[in-house]
């Protein structure tokens, strides 16, 4: 299920605030975002150059377009610009709520930009309080906004200490929203302030993390704990009060901080997270976005909205590309892979004119190789933590052991006794490949070992299918009837083997999809795959050279 | 370096097209997006309900706000709406280019919405051709747009076959842009069409991937190759022609496809990728976005812009949170961790009143445990692929072996000979912990083994620092002078050990940051950490119980 969020706010051409910041924040939380624009701004990191408000009826039209068609999980409002637009937003939402249940709404009561530009006409403040606050699960004023809201409501508006912040938040709660997050960024506070207030017993939630966390001396060692704190106050109509302290960052890259925080809160509320936890997560997201902000523009730069996401290195599995990992592995080693699966050994075998000596050399060495291969699967069982993978690996061991007895029969047909077979010295190509499997298994995790086992499993499957497909073409170069190696071709193109191939494909694709690798880890897999593909080719070189 | 991209286009309140699709696409490519709005729409998946154009001067103002402040790496234009806005965009860009070098620009010549709504006034088409195309590295018309552009320019506008697409693309190239990507979504084509045209020798680039890829029979096995293809044609002024075929998707979720493709192209061009490769990547991104589209709205739904990104599970390292992995591990096991590092054994030891028998039992068992610990580090060396980690692990082995000789001396002081020490039976708690280290090392990769080694290294460091910190407080419960276990406390709180702790912290944090784990992998680490923390506590329980 995709979570759908709606922002009703202004735009910021420079992309750091407004609906742009909201949509980026939604996306960085893997949520779907819709947006209703109340006013456009020509704006950059140095200030607001121009504003072009949306007509109130057009604001209503946008809201109706979204809500009439799409199920929205949570809404935020940002800059509403003027009384007409405030009234239009409130009226349209209320109309929607006549037939639908209310949607959690976060109201960021944006009034003035960081650069001092008026973003809500002063005469619109009362409308916002009367019309929007009662629809809101949460309002998120900063200190200047709180002072405006309080003074307009005839409430005390002195906010210079943590104690006064607590009082102010309580008073703001009386304005109609179900909760108030009073953001303390404008008031310098310290750990001492926090200690003093805890007497009154609000719950303290550090976000991003408690710098005074218990039992983490090793993480503090040599570091001076932050002296200056930012403390946000959350008051809920349930009576619950939380404080959210965090180290104060010395940064000018705070353009769009309020938008980002309220958008992140909207994501969390949409996900159904409770308000205190939502605030902790949203505050942590925003804090790190400021701390890792890129350097963009000449003024107060935007935040880093991207810190919470990574690029997926293997495409999602889909109907048109069900094996994206395997495909990328083969594509990344195209010529080596081709040199393996269309090796001269294979072609001569398909034509039925492969030297018997080469084939026998191959069979003898493969007999040795299969011991390593069986042991590698046994190691895979050893590295597994659940009965299913243990059982699957051991079944393969049994199959490989059975396969080896076919080698014994093969050799017997051509007059080679089991004792001669057993005593055939192992070729370097065999040792290289076999020992590499065991080494890889010892060195890495079960996925890396599985990767090492794939070039053999998949490659022989490819050879089988290719020869069979070619044989079906008119006047094919592949000889079927009377080919002395027909059984070999039939084995590897046959259903039993091909079903093992499909199981192998499913295993690595499922594992890779469930545990998406980082770039570095994917590169490790690629290297193992490539190495094994080369070793496979080397194995057939060996057979041809009788080396 | 953050890549900065600018879109100049209309809005889509429902979030699937326009600047919303562009910003989502930019974000999903981890690029920074700015946006200039030419017109706002009230729109959803069923159609466009209303349009409110931006005044031309306000469009210019937005462009100036962005370009005067921010270095933009690439630009795209989408819906420009009318002649005045086309002229305003062209004029403002040209003014900027008088003092600055030109920025790669992708022009998506949006004319009509999928739902049939006019998005560019017919009289504005000529202005777009004359003013915008010459500024463009690439234009990306679909078939209806191409027909409009060609007929307005007095060129043949029949496009019903792949051959006519090639001609049309060539003709479109004469309109002034440096390249043309003619999108073939509206023309049903087949593999046979492709085979016929290859005679003329354009380069064929499958995107997302070649369904007829060489040597991938195993991936086709049992699947019928797509019969219906979409083929895009790319003509460049260099004369290079590329075809981009892909399976045609049967999907109604195509709202914003053109916006998304041109935005993805803008990302690639901004990164400096050449046009053919950029088209391949952007086409693959868009194809998968359609194929994995969520179900949103009642009409032609939006694409899945998020398929290319994953949520980062461990926060970025930052100054206020330099050890995010370790912090989350400790927080996730807070009570178990506390039970370990503030164990009664530790408290009694700090007070100097720990039973001598308990301490000696601990020392004897620790002597056995350290053998496992040394072997686990030797295994870590075995699992390493570079000299540095091999050397680091072996240094630890040497240190641990030296530490064991201190145990021998300790015991000698208290009248226990080395032979008695060696012959002390191993307690189950010792075997459990030691064997778990070796098992984890055998089972997983080097990071998982490192994880298993951390609870011991970090926990003893924590105990040392805690006791030292407590000892420094006035009237401390910790006895320093005359404490019979002082040397033990000094060792673990001392510089040598603490520098090993910091190296350990750096190792796991650096590895986790370089190879960000999936949720599943992080959970595996957590489980190993928690298990070892419990085993550590169990070790001290054993010492207290003499078990």
TrEMBL record, chains A, B:
Secretion signal, residue range per the UniProt entry: none
Pfam families registered for this protein in UniProt: Phos_pyr_kin, TENA_THI-4
GO biological process, one term: thiamine biosynthetic process
Positions of the Pyridoxamine kinase/Phosphomethylpyrimidine kinase domain: 12-197, 228-304
Residue ranges occupied by any Thiaminase-2/PQQC domain in the UniProt entry: 334-545
Protein name stated in the entry: Pyridoxamine kinase/Phosphomethylpyrimidine kinase domain-containing protein
One GO CC term, this protein: cytosol
Matching CDD domains: HMPP_kinase, TenA_C_ScTHI20-like
């Amino acid at each position: 299920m995709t979570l759908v969020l709606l922002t009703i706010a202004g735009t910021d051409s420079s992309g750091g605030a407004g609906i742009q910041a909201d949509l980026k924040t939604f996306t960085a939380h893997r949520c779907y975002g819709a947006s209703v624009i109340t006013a456009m701004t020509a704006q950059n990191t140095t200030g607001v150059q121009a504003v072009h408000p949306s007509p109130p009826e057009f604001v209503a039209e946008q809201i109706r377009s979204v809500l009439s068609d799409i199920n929205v999980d949570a809404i935020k409002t940002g800059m509403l610009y003027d009384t007409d637009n405030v009234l239009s937003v409130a009226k349209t939402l209320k109309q929607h709520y006549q037939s639908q249940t209310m949607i959690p709404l976060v109201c960021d009561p944006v009034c003035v930009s960081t650069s001092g530009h008026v973003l809500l006409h002063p005469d619109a403040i009362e409308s916002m309080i009367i019309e929007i606050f009662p629809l809101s699960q949460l309002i998120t004023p900063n200190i200047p906004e709180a002072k405006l809201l309080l003074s307009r409501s005839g409430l005390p508006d002195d906010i210079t200490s943590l104690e006064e912040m607590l009082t102010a938040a309580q008073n703001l709660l009386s304005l109609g929203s179900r909760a108030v997050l009073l953001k303390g960024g404008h008031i310098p506070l310290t750990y001492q302030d926090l200690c003093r207030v805890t007497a009154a017993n609000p719950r303290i939630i550090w976000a991003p993390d408690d710098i005074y966390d218990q039992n983490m001396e090793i993480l503090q060692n040599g570091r001076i704990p932050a002296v200056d704190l930012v403390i946000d106050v959350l008051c809920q109509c349930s009576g619950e009060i939380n404080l959210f302290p965090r180290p104060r960052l010395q940064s000018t890259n705070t353009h769009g901080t309020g938008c980002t925080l309220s958008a992140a809160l909207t994501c969390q509320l949409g996900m159904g997270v409770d308000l205190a936890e939502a605030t902790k997560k949203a505050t942590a997201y925003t804090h790190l976005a400021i701390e890792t902000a890129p350097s963009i523009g000449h003024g107060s730069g935007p935040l880093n909205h991207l810190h919470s996401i990574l690029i997926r290195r293997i495409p999602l599995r889909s109907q048109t590309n069900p094996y994206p990992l395997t495909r990328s592995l083969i594509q990344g080693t195209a010529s080596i892979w081709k040199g393996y699966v269309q090796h001269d050994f294979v072609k001569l075998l398909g034509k039925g004119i492969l030297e018997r000596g080469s084939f026998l050399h191959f069979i003898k060495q493969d007999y040795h190789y299969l011991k390593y291969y069986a042991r590698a699967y046994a190691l895979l069982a050893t590295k597994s933590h659940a009965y299913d993978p243990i059982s699957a690996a051991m079944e393969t061991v049994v199959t490989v052991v059975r396969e080896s007895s076919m080698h014994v029969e093969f050799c017997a047909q051509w007059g080679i006794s089991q004792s001669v077979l057993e005593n055939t010295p192992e070729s370097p190509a065999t040792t290289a490949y076999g020992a590499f499997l065991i080494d890889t298994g010892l060195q890495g995790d079960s996925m890396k070992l599985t990767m090492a086992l794939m070039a053999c499993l998949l490659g022989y499957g490819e050879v089988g299918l290719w020869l069979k497909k070619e044989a079906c073409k008119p006047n094919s170069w592949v000889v079927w009837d009377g080919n002395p190696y027909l059984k070999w071709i039939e084995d590897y193109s046959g259903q039993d083997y091909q079903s093992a191939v499909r199981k192998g494909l499913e295993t690595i694709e499922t594992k890779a999809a469930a545990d998406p690798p980082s770039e570095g880890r994917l590169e490790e897999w690629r290297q193992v795959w490539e190495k094994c593909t080369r070793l496979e080719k080397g194995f057939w070189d060996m057979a041809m050279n009788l080396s």
